[in-house]
Amino acid sequence: MLTYDLNECPEKQPLYEFLYERIRDDIVGGRLAPGDRLPGKRSLANHLGASTNTVMRAYDMLLAEGFLYARERRGYFVEEVNYAPKPRAKARLLPDEAPARPKAAEASIDTGGTRASLDLFPASIWGRCMREALSLPTDELMRAIPHQGLSDLRSALCDYLYRNRGIEASPNQVVVGPGTELLFDQLLVLLGKGSKFAFEDPGYRKLETIADLRGVSWERIRSDEGCLRVDELGRTGASFVRVAPANLFPQGRVMPVKRRIELFEWANAEPGRYIVEDDYDSEFRYGSKPFSPLFAEDVNDKVVYMNTFSKTLAPSLRIGYMILPPGLLERYESSIALFSSAVSSFEQYALARFIEKGHFERQVYRLRNHYRKTRNLVAAALASSDLAGILDVERCDAGTHLLVNVRTRLSNDEARTRGARAGMRLSFLEDYTDLQAPSPGVCRLVLNYAGITEGNLDDVVGALRAVFL
Amino acid sequence: MLTYDLNECPEKQPLYEFLYERIRDDIVGGRLAPGDRLPGKRSLANHLGASTNTVMRAYDMLLAEGFLYARERRGYFVEEVNYAPKPRAKARLLPDEAPARPKAAEASIDTGGTRASLDLFPASIWGRCMREALSLPTDELMRAIPHQGLSDLRSALCDYLYRNRGIEASPNQVVVGPGTELLFDQLLVLLGKGSKFAFEDPGYRKLETIADLRGVSWERIRSDEGCLRVDELGRTGASFVRVAPANLFPQGRVMPVKRRIELFEWANAEPGRYIVEDDYDSEFRYGSKPFSPLFAEDVNDKVVYMNTFSKTLAPSLRIGYMILPPGLLERYESSIALFSSAVSSFEQYALARFIEKGHFERQVYRLRNHYRKTRNLVAAALASSDLAGILDVERCDAGTHLLVNVRTRLSNDEARTRGARAGMRLSFLEDYTDLQAPSPGVCRLVLNYAGITEGNLDDVVGALRAVFL
């Protein structure tokens, strides 16, 4: 008869589990052989001084996990299993917690990338909207959300866009998603694999990686006067093009009306052509009200509109959206709409309230003023420093960066290395372009000022002096 | 000289914008011809009785948008643009707000799909954790999050998994993502396109669509005794297989130890083979403590572990995670880690607190008891109804559904239609399988009881009676 000392069972472990482990170890260790018959539950219980229930639960676990099999009216037998000798507790070395990635963002002054100003997030108002969301009846909020997103949020977005961007769209054209990267990825699925995508050069290069991962071919289109050349676009055979007409990168200009018209002509010339309009940073335009988006001008269902809250609220709040032209809705329903929304409904609801109550418009207004001031501050500090003699600041009327041309013998990489040594992360126009060669004797600095404050302005100028003087 | 009545400017519109619109309309309408020279700023200002600044801003907007060009010391000229006649305000019909999708979920009793019980979400505790998140210093919380997720959450997950699932993993092996669908998609990118995926049949079919969209080929593997046949797996040439060993679908059994060993043998036999272990619903096991996951038994870096909070917290809270074996971390760094995390850092932080403080373990305990009771309630109600004569409930020790075999002449589709008429959404085993033919004379109902309460139990039995009696 199987004999185990149940007094050895640790205080916190249930008896049946202890018994289960002992029998299992005997099977794995070969002390109980395949085909061996186990004692009946009642007799083993008597033998061990345990309750029948304890033995029954242990047997049930062994049965469920395949260590035993049962024969009706005959009892429990050990299963025929080829137990490989199992190495003891693995002493394998886990990689350190320190991330393997180079810590580019560790520079104390970060003027690269797309960062936003972190101090202006309206945490208390957002918290109030979130509390409202959490106090709602659970029914709507707890279900798996339709892929397009909560209807409250889609309605609030449509109202906002109508008031502020002249866009007339119905909430059922809106798709909410966790940021531009994933929305763009969904768009690739929607528009299909057989086609070719065109991107502006210079431009946002991560989208090209996303297209690669979907197996969608793409080509970069040369720009002149800061804007993609539509004649070159026609030559590529692309069906889709991504543009940011409200904020051409990196000059921050708007797309001239001539190009807008050419772009529509290109899209209208063949069925299946679409313009993907990224309205990123259109909220941050300092000179004048932005021109209306292509989506609002479109009369032939040729434009997909995209935007995100990563800059207007926080990059860590993963909410963006796209608006599909009615002609794409059916295709959408049969492809990507199958999946659940990837955005938490609590945050969708909180954002809907935040927009409906006007907090979002006030937040954009506040940020725009803040960035305008920062831009002027930075431009003035550069102009009055002894760097003034070697640099020109190009007019940038949008976004949160300045394009600064520095006359220097340094290459971009030399300047970048010196910047890192001075505690400053630098980006250059050439980081965003494949088609434009660097001009000899000039570093074209893309200076994101969203992280610059009155407090660190002197450090910024000091670091630039250390790099270039 | 251009003449506009600035008194017509609506009260709320800035004067410069009104002037800009008038001039733009004259250019688009052809009243100002390409090449026409515009009056100087000061003289137009005098002429209209406006400030020079107003005219300057209007000209600047027209310039920025490409309606005008400037010649140094000569002034502003109308740009040569080929304005297509623009249709007037589009009277296009927007599709109705009503979604185009069939409203399957509208049935008043929903026993299909993967729904969770909605009333047990601990909204007030969650709200407290969220408030804590919102009161944190913004710096960590506001930055773009690394793809892997907040380190607080990854650490909390590792501690929880160690205590509850015997998993030893370092936080840098954890990848947080917005639910299983997207994590699985990332895994496809990580494991690469050249290979083949294997899925259990019956199984979770959405994953196959996700693989199709990534261009990854796949095959379904036949099961016996509720578990995938590893001998068939070897035959397919697949490199990856997705299994749910803690909760084989739909029987809710665990994977027998024999199959577990075979599966490891399969994975260890060739480099590049991986087991993707979905531990979904392992928290809801009613008989005994679940067997340890494959990930914890693995000694050769062959297992990727996945789980989600959609059932243990709420399906609308989009957070899941996977744990990569150390051998995949480098590949991960160079592929999917390039992208931003798609999960809001507020919710990541709130979830980290929720787990650290033990709320999550209590919530799982509470839900498990609730579901156990519901399961017994439903099984008892079926057994004591006059349906008892035509149905058997298969033992289901995990998850939130029962497998109910109903002896009937109805086909699944006939039963489904009758169910819809009785206000009840039904799922059948055959909805999840390609390889198993329906048994004539039997409907194999997969009855998710997460939405069943004492309050609607009579309606559930009533609807089943209406369908089958």
Description:
- Two copies of one chain form a homodimer.
- The longest helix of chain A has 26 residues, at about 360-385.
- Helices cover about 40% and strands about 15% of the residues of chain A.
- The first copy, chain A, is elongated, with a radius of gyration of 31 Å.
- Chain A folds into three domains: about 5-80, Orthogonal Bundle (Arc Repressor Mutant, subunit A), CATH 1.10.10; about 110-115 and about 365-469, Aspartate Aminotransferase, domain 1 (Alpha-Beta Complex), CATH 3.90.1150; about 120-360, Aspartate Aminotransferase, domain 2 (3-Layer(aba) Sandwich), CATH 3.40.640.10.
- With about 475 residues, chain A is α/β, with parallel strands linked by helices.
- Chain A contains 16 helices and 16 strands.
- A seven-stranded mixed beta sheet of chain A has the order 4-12-11-10-9-5-6, sandwiched between helices.
- Mean pLDDT of chain A is about 85; it is low at about 85-105.
- At the A-B interface, helix 1, helix 3, helix 4, helix 5 and helix 7 of A face helix 1, helix 3, helix 4, helix 5 and helix 7 of B.
